[in-house]
């Protein structure tokens, strides 16, 4: 296709392919491919997200077409229905315009009222890969790197607090949904088109998502029941001393009582992580509580 016959109805997302021309909001975009996402070691294509070139400026963009799905997740005994909402993501893009800790972009409707988001590309690794890139002892990481990382995490926690105060939820907080911007070093939230329904705390799933990010950062990676069982050289006899309360309330085999692995971790910092465990009796209710506790822990690390 060319500019004489551009696509103006994006309903059939799977039929839109490389070299197609989209006409969105009065501008032409040439599709160069589909986005992919690495999940659990697998390359997962996202056919509703297209790499494209703005034909006027030559800028590379990510174009998210309207795509709907839903699934159920659980926090302990609580069932939560999650679903994609292009409209919600479009509203958040308006709300966070020029905010340094959120992805930036614009949105338009096509001729069939499909909501299309045109996103600026953020250069840099996601947080999952960023932490995995460190090749040093845990003590070096803990003393030199972790305090800096926690300070950056505080900034994205405050950004999330801003979102919550304005009535929005991120909806899909994961380690690969923060980009560490290469030029500025900013941590930037991406992909907030998921929403969810729950009769409990309306921000609860976001808060537990933050728990996963903190656990990953403090642990310099993930630690699972399988890893602890198989790698006696790294974990010693920890497998013989495990308790159900040592594990995540969401990810049943994810070990989060990290002080058992790394005694150097201060108890207050480990206590923050244990709020997200199966053994917790008190959970965080609002983002301010996490921000306050993490701030205190940074102070302890810098003493």
Automatic annotation (TrEMBL):
Top-rank taxon, per record: Bacteria
Record key words, sorted: Membrane, Transmembrane, Transmembrane helix
Residue ranges constituting the Protein kinase domain according to the UniProt record: 29-303
Tagged with keyword Membrane: yes
Coiled-coil annotated residue ranges, if any: none
Transmembrane intervals: 207-225
GO molecular function, one term: ATP binding
Keyword Transferase belongs to the record: no
Protein name: Protein kinase domain-containing protein
């Amino acid at each position: 296709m060319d500019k004489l016959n551009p696509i103006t109805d994006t309903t059939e997302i799977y039929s839109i392919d490389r070299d197609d021309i989209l006409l969105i909001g009065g501008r032409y975009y040439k599709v160069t491919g589909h986005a992919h996402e690495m999940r659990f070691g697998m390359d997962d294509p996202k056919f509703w997200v297209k790499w494209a070139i703005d034909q006027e400026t030559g800028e590379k963009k990510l174009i998210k077409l309207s795509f709907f799905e839903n699934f159920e997740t659980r926090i302990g005994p609580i069932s939560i229905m999650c679903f994609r909402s292009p409209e919600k993501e479009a509203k958040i893009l308006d709300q966070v315009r020029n905010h340094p800790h959120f992805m930036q972009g614009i949105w338009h409707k096509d001729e069939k009222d499909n909501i299309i988001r045109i996103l600026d590309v953020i250069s840099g690794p996601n947080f999952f890969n960023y932490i995995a890139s460190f090749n040093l002892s845990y003590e070096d990481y803990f003393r030199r790197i972790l305090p800096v990382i926690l300070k950056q995490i505080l900034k994205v926690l405050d950004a999330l607090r801003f979102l919550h105060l304005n009535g929005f939820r991120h909806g899909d907080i994961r380690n690969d949904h923060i980009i560490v911007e290469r030029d500025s070093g900013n941590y930037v939230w991406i992909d907030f088109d998921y929403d969810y329904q729950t009769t409990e705390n309306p921000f609860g799933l976001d808060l537990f998502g933050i728990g996963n990010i903190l656990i990953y950062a403090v642990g310099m990676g993930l630690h699972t029941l399988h890893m602890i069982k198989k790698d006696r050289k790294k974990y010693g006899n920890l497998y013989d001393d495990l308790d159900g309360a040592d594990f995540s309330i969401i990810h049943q085999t994810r070990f989060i009582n990290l002080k058992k692995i790394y005694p150097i971790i201060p108890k207050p910092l480990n206590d923050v992580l244990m709020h997200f465990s199966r053994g917790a009796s008190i959970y965080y209710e609002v983002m301010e509580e996490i921000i306050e506790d993490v701030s205190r822990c940074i102070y302890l690390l810098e003493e």
